[in-house]
Amino acid sequence: MKAVIQRVSHAVCRVEGGISGECKNGLLVLLGVGKGDTEEDARLLAEKIAKLRIFCDENDKMNLSVCDIGGEMLVISNFTLLANYAHGNRPDYMNAERPDEANRLYEYFVELISQRVGHVGKGVFGAEMHIETQLMGPVTIVMDSEVLKKRRN
Question: Is 38 a catalytic residue?
Fold first, then answer.
C-alpha cells in the first residue's frame, strides 16, 4: 500500500460538481492499494501517518502530528500510485489491487484513521475526482507499507 501525504491548509475533492470531502489545516492523503495488500498494510500506514510529526511547534520545529494540532484529513483513493512505468511511455496498472478489494481496504484505512483524527473527508472510489489543495511548506512524503513491514523485522 502506498500513500502520498501532503501537509495542507485546505483541500477539497469535487465529484460531478459537488463536494465529496474536504479538510482544513491537516493532511491530504492519496492512497494506492496494491495486489496482495492486507488490513495490516492499512493499519501500519494509518498508525504512522497519524503520528507523523510534520507540523511546526512553538519553536518552528516539525514536532507535531496531525493529531497533536487537532487537524483534519482528506483521503483519496488513487490506483495510479501503483503505476509500472519501466517499459514504454504508457504506464500499466497491473500492480493495483482489484477494485472491490481495493475499495474495501481504502474504506478500512479511512475507518482506522477516523479513530485517530477528528474529521476525515473522502473522495469517491473509482470516480473522476477534481482535487484542489493549498499546500503548506510544501511538505510531501511518500510512504510504502512494505518499508514499514521491513522496519519491524
Answer: no
